[in-house]
Structures are given as C-alpha cells and as structure tokens.
Design a protein that fits this description.
By secondary structure, the chain is an alpha/beta fold. The protein contains 13 helices and 12 strands. Helix 3 (90-103) runs antiparallel to helix 4, helix 5 packs across helix 6 (158-170) and helix 9 (237-252) runs antiparallel to helix 10 (258-273). The protein starts with a strand and ends with a helix.
Length: 405
Amino acid sequence: MLKTVNLGLQYGSRKLFEHVDITFTKGNCYGIIGANGAGKSTFLKLLSGEIESTTGEVILDKNERMSVLKQDQNAYNDKTVLDTVLLGHPRLIEIKEQKDALYAKEDFSEEDGILAAELEGEFAELGGWDAETDAATLLNGIGVDEEYHYTLMGDLDAKLKIKVLLAQALFGNPDILLLDEPTNNLDYKSTRWLENFLLNFENTVLIVSHDRHFLNNVCTHICDVDFGKIKLYVGNYEFWYESSQLALQQAKDQNKKSEQKVKELQEFIARFSANKSKSRQATSRKKLLEKIKIEDIEPSSRRYPYIGFKPNREVGNDILFVENLSKPGLFKNLTFSVNKNDKIAFLAENSVIITALFNILSGKDTDYTGKFKWGITTSTGFLPQENKEYFNKNLKQLKSNCDIS
C-alpha cells in the first residue's frame, strides 16, 4: 500500500499543492491528470522519493518494491538491452552479484555456505532463474526483437530505447508501478500491448498521461491535479469528465427537483457501471462505480484551454485524392480519398512508411510514382517528426491561414 499524509510542496511563495491525503491500493490503476505545469510529474517524483516534500510524508510498506519509468535515455548506454531490463529489479542484481562473489572465493567457509544458501532461496523466490526469460518476453511483447537483446543501449535507436526503459519498469512484477507519459513515442501496436499488460496487472499503478483513450482503457481512478489540490475520483477519464459536467449542469439548473437530479445521476452511474469487459481493471472499476454515492460526484474546477482554428474560407467537400501512389521499398499502389470532416489515422508497424507517405503528400519528397491531388479549397500544414526548421516555416504558414486563439 502507498499513501500520502498531509503532503505538500512549495517553491518559494508558490504552493504547488498541499494537504494531499490519498491511499493507493492494490489492484487499482490511478490516472494522474492536470494542465501542463500543474505538478503531475512532480507528484510522481515525490512518491518515488526523487524529491522531498515541504510538508507531510509518503508512506510505502517496507516489504513492497516500487518501480519507476526512467526518463534518461542515455543512462544505460554502456549496458546491453537485456541487462538494462534486468536492472529494473535492483535487489535481484544485488543478490546475483553477491552469489557470484561468494562462489569465486578460494577459501569458501561454512559461513559463506550458509549465506549462499540464504541468497539462493531469496533469488529463487524473486524469480531469478527465470529473470532473463521474463525480460526477453517483455522486450518481445513491446516490440524490441531478439536481434537487439544483446545490443548496447548506446547503439540503439531512440524509439527502441524508450521501449527498453518501459520494459525495465515493468520487469519483476513490482508492487507499485509509476509511469510518467508511458505512451509517448510508442507506436500503436506497442501501446495496445501496454494496455493489455496493465489491464491484467494485479498490483498498484499510477500513470501520468495526456492520452485520454489510454486512461479510459486502463484506469479505475482519476487523480485530478488542479488549483493546488489533488482530488481522487472513482472511474476512468471519461467517467470523471462527464460526471463533472453533469454535476456542473445540475448546479446551474435551479428549477430541477432534487429527486430528478438524483435519478439522473443514478442512471448515469448505472450506464458507466455496465462494462462487460472481463479484464481485471474493468471489473474492479465496475465494482467501484456500483458503490459510488450521489454526493461523491461533484463538478471539477478545471478550466479547459483550447486552440480554436478559424479558416479564412469554408473548405469544399473534396480534400485529397490519392491514386496508385508508390514509394520503392515501402508501399505500392496506395489509393484512397479524404472528404470534408474525415479524421483518419495511418498505422504501420514501421513508422518510416508513414513518414515517407506524409513527406510525399507535403511536397517534401518527389521520388514516387502514381499521383495525388489536393482539393482547390484546401490549404495544408505539415508537422514532421524531426525538423525544427521545417516546423517553424509551416507554423508561420498555418498562422497566416488560421486565427489561433
């Protein structure tokens, strides 16, 4: 069990948050949400002990192990991929090194034998004999193939490094798992794998994320960091948001009778409780929602910033036509059309394919066969993965075409 008691953090005269009293229990997944700069990642650092609080304390059972998703991609450049994952369980590595040192001694004593036996017992209890197999399974699942397992981290592509560090955090069945933006730079397939992993994870998970779909799928609770407070709500992101909006609307409607308001909220809770998923997290969430009381639902004080795009002219129905578009070695005979109001996601196991397609459609690459045509009323903007100069150029173009507020 992990809990905070009167936890607070203050930088100078600014109070980031105060009086935080939350208990995080086994079997639940907590989504930490809030505006940029609200203190979400800082809250995780307080829980992990990376930074100290101004007031209060963080309490973790001494027999429980906490694992944290590391953010420094270069911290393990001199380690192999497999060894980096194994380092996610420091005690396991410590025992292995102690055993190796004992067995290497020329004057192996009776006391050494007793200590070695104790270490062997703990090593086996922690799954040491299956550690490399388990680490390799995690890597394969998240999309790091066996050909990379003995590659040095320093020689690895940045996107693969992110996956290795995530596998490191998940390794060894930690009691408490802290994940700060775990889906950043993950491809679709790896993100779905992580969802399934967390849905069946039996211990406690805390996740900072801006990915609402991800939070909806895995979370049993939402922790809202807002206006110096951290409030805990039952349910996933969608339940938190819609219940808050319903409570806010009812607060504004003074003409409704209290009985009608109670009925509306009860029907709302029942609708969200009717989740037929067999996953561990969804089942846990359903039981929690069934126990919620009407007074537990309250409006959030969150203010929602937004970017409003106002085009200078109305776009036509025809946006884009692509016919038999091919790029040697990547894709061929690609044909599709985009119409007004379409929202399309392009998915591929190799992200280079998507990048190549977008480079062609943006006019950056002319080495292709086939053809494409933008609608005559269509203006475009392009955000590449890595090209600051190109980004700045297109941002200026976008601002000239739209009123950004």
